[in-house]
Amino acid sequence: MHCPSIIGAAVSIPGSFDGSVVQDAKSQQRISGGEVQDLDLEKVDGELSASLASWSFGGTVYRSFDEHITRSVPMYSECHELILSLSDFFVRPDSIVYELGSATGVLTAQLAQRHASKLRRIIGIDIEQSMVTEAERRYGNPSVVQFVEADVRSYKFEPSDFVVSYYTLQFLRPEERHHVIKAVCEKMARGGAFVLFEKVRERDGRLQDLVDQLYADYKLGNGFEPTEILAKTRSLRSVLEPSTSAENIAALREAGFSVVGLIHKGLCFEGYLAIK
C-alpha cells in the first residue's frame, strides 16, 4: 500500500529494511554494516522524514502511514469504497482474494468483512515486516484473513477471483510490473478481475505541468507545508517511476486481460478494472 504503500499506496518497496532509512523524526539515521550513520533528512509530514531518493515504507512508517496517505492521494478512502462495490461482482463462494501491497491492512480487512460468508481466504501481501506486523495486530483472523511478508515479484499466486493493487506496482521497475501483472492474470479464474490503481504520468508536457501544480495545490490545501511537498518529491527520485495511462492499459492487455477500462481518475492518479 501499499501506496504499497508515499504517494500511493498501498505499497511497499521491494527490498529489506537492512540498510534503509529509518523515517521517523526521532530516528534520523541509517543502519549500515552494524554502524549507525547520521543523515540529512527532510521532514515530509509530521514525524515522517526522508532523504534524497531514499523513500521507504519500512521502520516506523506504519505509525503515520494511514493518515499520511489519506491526505496525500485524492479520494483515497472513497476509492476503497469503489473497490468494495466492484468486489461484489467478482467474489464468489469459496473465492481466494489478494491485495498486493496491503500495508497496514485497512482495505484487506474491509474486503474480508464484506465477504466473510463467501471467502475461502483473503491474503494481504507486503514486503515490509513492520507493515505486516501492524496489519496482523489490527485485523489478524487466521480463519479468513492472512497477512504475508513477501515480495510480489516472486510470489506464487493461487487461483483467484479478485486481486487488488492499490498504488503499489508504481514502485516497481516497469518490466517488473509487467511480470507481476502477467503472474496475476495467469492464475486468475476466467471472469475474475484485477483492480489496479497507479500514479500516472501525462504524455503531454503542458498537461503534466498543469497537473503537477494542481496536485501541489491539493496537498497545500490538506495542510502540507511547501517544504514538506518538496521533500517528498525529492525522496521519491529513483523510487517512483509512473507510467502513462496508455502504458498501464497496454500492460494489462498484454498480460492477457480481455476487458480493460478506466474506472477512476483524480489528477495524476488512476484506477483500472481488468477482467479475464
UniProtKB/TrEMBL annotation:
<feature type="domain" description="Methyltransferase">
    <location>
        <begin position="97"/>
        <end position="192"/>
    </location>
</feature>
<dbReference type="GO" id="GO:0008168">
    <property type="term" value="F:methyltransferase activity"/>
</dbReference>
<dbReference type="GO" id="GO:0032259">
    <property type="term" value="P:methylation"/>
</dbReference>
<dbReference type="GO" id="GO:0017000">
    <property type="term" value="P:antibiotic biosynthetic process"/>
</dbReference>
<protein>
    <submittedName>
        <fullName>Methyltransferase</fullName>
    </submittedName>
</protein>
<keyword id="KW-0808">Transferase</keyword>
<dbReference type="InterPro" id="IPR029063">
    <property type="entry name" value="SAM-dependent_MTases_sf"/>
</dbReference>
<dbReference type="InterPro" id="IPR041698">
    <property type="entry name" value="Methyltransf_25"/>
</dbReference>
<dbReference type="Pfam" id="PF13649">
    <property type="entry name" value="Methyltransf_25"/>
</dbReference>
<keyword id="KW-0489">Methyltransferase</keyword>
